[in-house]
Amino acid sequence: xxxxxxxxxxxxxxxxxxxxxxxxxxxxxxxxxxxxxxxxxxxxxxxxxxxxxxxxxxxxxxxxxxxxxxxxxxxxxxxxxxxxxxxxxxxxxxxxxxxxxxxxxxxxxxxxxxxxxxxxxxxxxxxxxxxxxxxxxxxxxxxxxxxxxxxxxxxxxxxxxxxxxxxxxxxxxxxxxxxxxxxxxxxxxxxxxxxxxxxxxxxxxxxxxxxxxxxxxxxxxxxxxxxxxxxxxxxxxxxxxxxxxxxxxxxxxxxxxxxxxxxxxxxxxxxxxxxxxxxxxxxxxxxxxxxxxxxxxxxxxxxxxxxxxxxxxxxxxxxxxxxxxxxxxxxxxxxxxxxxxxxxxxxxxxxxxxxxxxxxxxxxxxxxxxxxxxxxxxxxxxxxxxxxxxxxxxxxxxxxxxxxxxxxxxxxxxxxxxxxxxxxxxxxxxxxxxxxxxxxxxxxxxxxxxxxxxxxxxxxxxxxxxxxxxxxxxxx
Length: 476
Fold this sequence. Notes:
Layout: E1 6-7, H1 8-15, E2 18-20, E3 26-27, E4 29-31, E5 41-44, H2 57-62, E6 67-71, E7 84-87, H3 90-104, E8 108-113, H4 118-130, E9 135-137, H5 147-153, E10 161-165, H6 174-181, E11 185-188, H7 202-209, E12 221-225, H8 231-240, E13 245-250, E14 257-264, E15 269-275, E16 278-284, H9 289-304, H10 309-315, E17 327-333, E18 336-343, H11 349-361, E19 370-375, H12 384-389, H13 392-397, E20 402-406, H14 410-414, E21 422-426, H15 429-439, E22 445-449, H16 457-466, E23 470-471
Parallel strand pairs: 4-5, 5-6, 6-7, 8-10, 8-11, 9-10, 11-12, 12-13, 13-14, 18-22, 19-20, 19-22, 20-21
Antiparallel strand pairs: 1-3, 2-7, 14-15, 15-16, 17-18, 17-23
Helix pairs in contact: 3-5, 4-9, 4-10, 15-16
């Protein structure tokens, strides 16, 4: 039997609701997706931009939901025999339940934001803290106006460490979310040109990221990337928000958390560093210089939260690249295998450069090539053309053999790529699929990346479907 997450009376009181029908007295989980709901969970019928959760209430209840949290103005449309908690606004009820979950716990809470590296840092911190106590963390990229309260509402009362990812694509979005989370430690991984269409400058993005300091608990600590050019602004914003302690991380040995030696391999990184005065050696089970840098913030946060640093550091060996964020597959082709690096989840200039650098370190067999398949980076505003053209430099530095480009903005890059490195350019990813399948050969390493709107994910699926791929942590 699943553990009890909420007693019915406590849930009803938290959301200021009223009971209709005969729900069970205990709730084992919180869900907003009727397709994956488990028996005993509460289903919150949120009205989204595309779908209204009230349409799926009957399905959730038939799958064994303990109850459905529904809006008062929709109750008359729902099956009369249902089990309901009726509220004025379902999303606000979820927020209220999240705040109640935060209020009842004594857990040490860490919140993470940044232009790049939020999800991978969250995963590293989840692994690190789980070795030291009962840990609750965001799943996937649940970092927005519904993902944060949902993660909070799912947090058990006896949690010892909580890890929350907080995202944004416009100013003012982080402030209400961090007010719910109320972290003891706040990490800003980095500030980079992302969502520029919604901001006048990268400085504006830094100011929006700095909203995370407004929700820090009294005595809370800000963990900042001192190697980032916007560090001084972030430090100023933290101090202005009343933060008394600021911890720095980066490569310089004057920083509070820094590396002293890094050995990068195609499947992992081995690191020696100093974390808040303590010398530590650790292995990160997924490759990438960006993970090395963010692991400094992770270990600093773990120590600040009261975790055992040595145990936390050892846990990072279990880190795996999440789906769409560096996950590797082995493709079975005639004459051997090829490596597929799936970076298709999303893209911006900083993450694209990191992915290209990662491809540059991938091992290839004799005669194999490093192939970048890259789609448009969206939401960059007037700077889009220049930011796409500038990718020619990291491609050259990483010695990428062949480049396939997708989308109108990537045409800007295509026009400046040396002829010898050109694989092909298409307007859409669908148009590229046939040629890409034919081009891959044994020994190659292929990296696929682009913004979600460019739909690069189907290219990953096409390759894995065609060549019987299997997941490979230590791809070569």
